[in-house]
Amino acid sequence: MTTNTVVSVSGLEKTYGKANERQYTALKGLNFTVDSGEFVGIMGASGSGKTTLLNMLSTLDTPTKGDVVVNGHDVTKMRGNQLADFRAQEVGFIFQDFNLLESLTAEENIGLPLALKGTPSKVMDQAIHEVAETLSIADLLQKYPAELSGGQKQRVAAARAIVHHPAILMGDEPTGALDSTSARELLDLLTTINEQQKMSVLLVTHDPFSASFCQRILFIKDGQIGSELRRGDQDRSTFYQGILNELGTFNE
Ligand SMILES: Nc1ncnc2c1ncn2[C@@H]1O[C@H](COP(=O)(O)OP(=O)(O)OP(=O)(O)O)[C@@H](O)[C@H]1O
Fold first, then answer.
1. pLDDT digits (tens, 9 = 90+) for 39-49
2. How many Å lie between the centroid of ligand 1 and the Cα of residue 25?
3. CA angle, 173 as apex, 169 and 174 as ends, to 5°?
4. How many angstroms separate the alpha carbon of residue 17 from the centre of ligand 1?
5. What is the CATH number of the domain that holds 178?
6. What are phi and psi of 126, to 5 degrees?
7. What ipTM was assigned to the predicted interfaces of this complex?
8. Spacing, Cα 64 to ligand 1 middle (Å)
9. From the alpha carbon of 54, which atom of ligand 1 is closest?
10. How does strand 5-16 pair with strand 91-95?
């Protein structure tokens, strides 16, 4: 793995079910890398293994076989506290359903990853306010999730995901519950964060519009990387058409 690689996946397999039960192999030997600072999308038909892959990358589940190296850490070899530390420090997540704690304000939600690390409150305040500016939510910090729109909630969740400067931001259909305007705003913000902070982003999505914001897209088919598209110097709408054409070759 070179110093420019933030994620390296090799020979990744995942079989669900115990040996004496009915088994299903969702991932059949995946290989790919993500460069530091890249914005990569993972696409595939429903049931192709996108969430399974993200669960392996984020250590929420363990692979049956293969290696996953994130920012120099072989996550398949980590256990207990090491895993908890890895998740808390190296990865930021955004999910379709926001996963904000309802009893905490936006500010308290955003501060969670720093509080877990025991960050001094002054440093924490500054980091929260900086990220809140980036995500245009500075005026929402004292509100509770129930007082926020879906788009605002997702921007708070994105702030929480990056406040501790993780090595990579991972999203599982983060625009799935948003209206089209909020989805676009979030994707523009993710692009800004990727470009300005050189934050590596891995976005799992079945939505070609979301995927068109990525620099490179990996398509999972039959449990493997079936194909790959690079945006290069295409404008976003040309890339979007390319994605639609590629998806058209899949039997969904
Ligand atoms: N815990 C589990 N036990 C058994 N099979 C599972 C389990 N989780 C997922 N699968 C199977 O593995 C395959 C991949 O599922 P996964 O959720 O990763 O797909 P996906 O690409 O994220 O789908 P979608 O786009 O519909 O969310 C599916 O066939 C699914 O039924």
1. 999 999 888 99
2. 10
3. 60
4. 12
5. 3.40.50.300
6. -65, -45
7. 0.95
8. 15
9. 18
10. unpaired
